[in-house]
Design brief:
The chain folds into 2 domains: 2-40 and 200-265 and 363-418, FAD/NAD(P)-binding domain (3-Layer(bba) Sandwich), CATH 3.50.50; 59-96 and 133-194 and 268-359, D-Amino Acid Oxidase, Chain A, domain 2 (2-Layer Sandwich), CATH 3.30.9. The protein is built from 12 helices and 21 strands. By secondary structure, it is an alpha/beta fold. The longest helix has 29 residues, at 98-126. The strands form 4 sheets. Strands 3, 4, 5, 6, 7, 13, 16, 17, 18 and 19 form a 10-stranded mixed beta sheet that branches. The structure holds flavin-adenine dinucleotide (FAD). Flavin-adenine dinucleotide binds next to helix 1, strand 13, strand 19 and helix 11.
């Protein structure tokens, strides 16, 4: 089948690869000059399928309200643009109900587990290198964080996810660089989760997709879609490209295309930040450096080792703009790095980045038919697109090929967003 794909972020690249691997003739259209130039560019790198959970969770609204005006607030509203997000926030609030959260968490967990297996298989068979390292330590600074983690821990037990709740001494054995001067009450260790460089993986998999015949057209912005039995898309330059199926993997900007065919989604761009800095080397060794991946639960900031660099990521801004960096959020990232790994990185050489998570209000992505003939969706992976990409791509490629999906897709379609749920 001839398949045209819009977007070459991590979701588009993995989808192109899987479609090509199943024998389809794939062309990818990407408006930027390379793969992984937007949300997939400098994301946190965290690969934590074990503890994946929707942001819409019981207790979250009151927790966010508590922090709202503090200097280290995890969520910020981006001025007037935030007003337009009120319907999205309403849907998010509704998805925080325990039963809805539970169903979404389970769907995410299944997709993430499948995705991890697929990524491991690709990594092994294609010998991919992307600064990967196992180990994920969730740092709980005080008794309150441990108390708040109980619901999540119960679910880890219920889902059979291997994990340990460890004391500070054990936590510091797992991550020997952790500073002793910062209060640490306990930590949750998931040895099978970890970190990897999303952009490097996308670049490597693009080359593999090309080897299978997939074509990538860069600087090619898709202006409109025309659904049908022979769907087509039109590029900004006017050129029309016909196919037998179109897959939209356009991330947070997808609605600009989908609205034109009456298939708009409740998709918000939730901006986040990352800071990446080279490690300081003393006597040839990383000084007090992180070994793998960590998360400070109080500040909701992740710290990851990527080769000889460290990346700190966090912040959630609804309705903001990509162009304006919020100084307070950046200060929180530097503070958390300094609390746990003081002096480990050359922060004066740090690169600061802001990207948009393509976020649906309830959590799971949308994989499947758009409702318009010939147009398929692989969208809305929110804060976990790197974790979910390989599995989502495989599921969609199997479905486009008319094969049975490898897992239950009941909560991964549009129906849940159109219903009351
Ligand atoms: C600060 C931050 C930290 C994160 N940390 C993690 C993490 O640790 N782990 C994790 O799993 N996830 C993380 N994420 C989320 C993850 O990065 C995203 O879910 C993922 O990158 C989304 O991939 P995507 O391919 O859907 O979107 P994108 O990477 O944004 O790709 C979409 C592509 O579509 C292209 N496009 C859009 N419209 C058009 C058009 N009309 N024509 C042609 N091309 C078009 C864009 O140029 C873009 O290249 C983080 C995100 C942020 C912002």
């Amino acid at each position: 089948m001839r398949v045209a794909l819009v977007g070459a972020g991590i979701v588009g690249v993995t989808t192109a690869y899987e479609l090509a691997a199943l024998g389809h003739e794939v062309t990818v259209f990407e408006r930027r000059g390379s793969v992984a130039e937007e949300a997939s560019f400098a994301n946190g790198g965290i690969l934590a399928p074990g503890s994946i959970a929707p942001w819409a969770a019981p207790g979250e609204p009151s927790r966010l309200l508590r922090q709202w005006l503090g200097p280290n607030a995890a969520l910020r509203l981006g001025g007037a643009g935030a007003l337009a997000q009120l319907p999205w926030l309403w849907r998010w609030w509704r998805a925080c109900r325990p039963a809805v959260h539970q169903a979404n968490r389970l769907a995410l967990h299944q997709l993430a587990g499948f995705s991890r297996d697929r990524m491991l298989e690709l990594t092994r068979t294609l010998r991919l290198e992307f600064e990967q390292m196992p180990g994920w330590l969730v740092l709980l600074r005080g008794a309150r964080e441990l108390h708040e983690a109980q619901g999540g821990l119960a679910l880890l037990r219920e889902l059979g996810v291997a994990h340990d709740v460890v004391d500070p001494v054990r936590a510091r054995q797992i991550e020997p660089g952790l500073a002793t001067g910062t209060e640490l009450h306990a930590a949750i260790h998931l040895a099978q989760d970890g970190v990897g460089n999303c952009r490097q993986f996308a670049q490597a998999l693009k080359a593999e997709a090309q080897r299978l015949g997939a074509r990538f057209q860069f600087d090619a912005e898709v202006r409109s879609l025309a659904p049908g039995t022979r769907p087509a898309l039109q590029l900004a330059g006017g050129e029309i490209h016909e196919a037998e199926a179109i897959v939209v993997c356009a991330g947070a900007q997808a609605n600009a295309l989908l609205a034109g065919i009456g298939c708009g989604l409740p998709l918000a761009a939730v901006h986040g930040y990352s800071v990446t800095a080279p490690l300081r080397h003393l006597d040839g060794h990383g000084h007090n450096a992180p070994r793998a991946a960590l998360r400070d639960e109080r500040f909701r900031v992740a710290i990851a080792r990527l080769g000889q660099r460290v990346r700190v990521s966090g912040g959630a801004e609804l309705g903001g703009s990509a162009a304006r960096m919020h100084p307070a959020t950046l200060r929180t990232l530097y503070k958390v790095l300094d609390d746990w790994f003081p002096g480990a990185a050359l922060v004066r050489e740090a690169q600061q980045w802001k990207g948009a998570r393509p976020m649906l209000p309830d959590g799971p992505p949308v994989l499947g038919e758009s409702g318009a003939p010939g147009v398929w969706l692989n969208l809305g992976h929110g804060a976990s697109g790197w974790v979910l990409a390989c599995g989502s791509a495989r599921v969609l490629a199997e479905r486009i090929s008319g094969r049975a999906a490898p897992l239950d897709c009941a909560r991964l379609g549009l129906a849940r967003l159109r219903g009351a749920g």
